[in-house]
């Protein structure tokens, strides 16, 4: 079955469709209408962090690992089992989110995915990528805290680990793809190789994430977030984003990474200022960084691994514009007296962008490689 010949085929369309359908359900609940979910707010938090993102990560990991290691891809049966486990978790958390069986089911996906990834990486001696497995383990620990101990600390830890994970993945693929594209066009000024600026940005971001988890929005977190935001902005500026703007699927990666800078800036403002922007920081990192970065990585992987040219259509450009605009409106909603209009407009646009991505991805997922 073609759908089981690569992890990107089932996971990417399903992840995008799930995100696109979940947000309207949450907006309906937020407007006061009755929904089948008992605690819609906690469901929204959990499912966007530990429902959508793990599907995108699984599709990315098990598509990339054969390239990293030279080992075979997951067998169709193993891939099917992993996908069914993710899907069962979504159904369980929708039907009975407070039930222990639902929570155990949804909490089993990340450790299974991490174990499968670790097996392949260790077997190939590809130790440099063990850090990705470690990040997934940390993300799972945050989920455990959210489900069974403290929801606020769990959400903070989830966003903190996601911040580091996006820094790792975005910091690997964005300059590399941009460098290759510019080389092919004879450019002499290229994004620099991983160096001191990148190490500083990564270390400061990790420090910010740890302080955020341990001390919440303290002064220490704020100081670290300011330094990390400046380091991330400097790092991004060296990747020659303006030089690749003619290729939307490359420029979109730079735009997605910029949300990390914005999220860190908002976290700093929350920690050091007298105004509460923690919700805005969450959405800058969630709808902004996670949403747009996973979307561009998924679309590039779908096109590349299916043998299609990695080139944007006009619809793709519109798709990413809608995602960014939706995230921006949701973040800006915190600065107006009545945020309802921006709140719902942002969520609707973001959901439309994700559904458009699902519609773009599904025909590719079920078609043979060109």
Summarize the entry for a quick read.
The chain is mainly alpha-helical.
Secondary structure elements and their pairing?
Elements: H1 8-30, H2 40-69, H3 76-95, H4 100-106, H5 109-123, H6 130-148, H7 151-184, H8 196-215, H9 219-237, H10 248-272, H11 278-305, H12 314-332, H13 340-365
Helix pairs in contact: 1-2, 1-11, 1-13, 2-3, 2-5, 2-7, 2-11, 3-4, 5-6, 6-7, 7-8, 7-10, 7-11, 8-9, 9-10, 10-11, 10-12, 11-12, 11-13, 12-13
Features:
370 residues; mainly alpha; Cytochrome C Oxidase, Chain A
Which architecture does the CATH hierarchy give at level 2? Up-down Bundle
Quantity of strands, as a count? 0
> Which regions have little confidence, pLDDT < 50, spanning 5+ residues?
none
CATH superfamily: Cytochrome c oxidase-like, subunit I domain
Largest sheet: none
Gyration radius, to the nearest Å?
20 Å
Kindly estimate the percentage of residues that lie in beta strands according to DSSP.
Answer: under 5%
How many domains, as an integer? 1
Helix/strand structural class: mainly alpha
């Amino acid at each position: 079955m073609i759908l089981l010949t690569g992890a990107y085929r089932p996971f990417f369309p399903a992840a995008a469709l799930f995100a696109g359908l979940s947000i309207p359900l949450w907006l309906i609940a937020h407007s006061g209408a009755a929904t089948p979910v008992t605690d819609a707010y906690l469901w929204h938090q959990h499912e966007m962090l530990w429902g959508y993102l793990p599907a995108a990560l699984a599709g990315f990991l098990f598509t990339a690992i054969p390239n990293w290691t030279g080992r075979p891809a997951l067998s169709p049966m193993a891939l099917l089992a992993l996908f069914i486990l993710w899907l069962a978790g979504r159904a369980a958390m929708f039907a009975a989110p407070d039930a222990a069986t639902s929570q155990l089911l949804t909490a089993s996906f990340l450790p299974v995915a991490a174990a499968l990834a670790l097996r392949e990486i260790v077997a190939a001696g590809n130790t440099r990528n063990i850090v990705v497995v470690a990040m997934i383990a940390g993300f799972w620990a945050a989920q455990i805290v959210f489900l069974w101990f403290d929801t606020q600390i769990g959400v903070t830890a989830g966003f903190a680990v996601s911040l580091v994970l996006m820094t790792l993945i975005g910091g690997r693929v964005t300059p590399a793809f941009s460098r290759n594209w510019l080389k092919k066009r004879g450019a002499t000024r290229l994004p620099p190789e991983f160096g001191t600026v990148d190490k500083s940005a990564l270390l400061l971001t990790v420090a910010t994430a740890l302080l955020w988890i341990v001390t919440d929005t303290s002064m220490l977190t704020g100081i670290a977030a300011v330094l990390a935001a400046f380091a991330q902005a400097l790092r991004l500026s060296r990747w020659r984003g303006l030089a690749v703007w003619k290729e939307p699927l490359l420029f979109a990666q730079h735009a997605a990474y910029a949300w990390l800078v914005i999220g860190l800036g908002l976290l700093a403002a929350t920690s050091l200022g007298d105004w509460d922007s923690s919700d805005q920081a969450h959405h800058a990192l969630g709808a902004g960084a996670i949403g747009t970065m996973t979307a561009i990585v998924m679309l590039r992987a779908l096109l590349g691994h299916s043998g299609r040219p990695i080139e944007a259509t006009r619809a793709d450009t519109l798709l990413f514009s809608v995602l960014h605009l939706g995230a921006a409106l949701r973040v800006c909603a915190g600065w107006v007296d009545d945020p309802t209009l921006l709140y719902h407009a942002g969520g609707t646009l973001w959901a439309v962008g994700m559904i458009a991505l699902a519609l773009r991805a599904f025909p590719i997922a079920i078609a043979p490689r060109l």
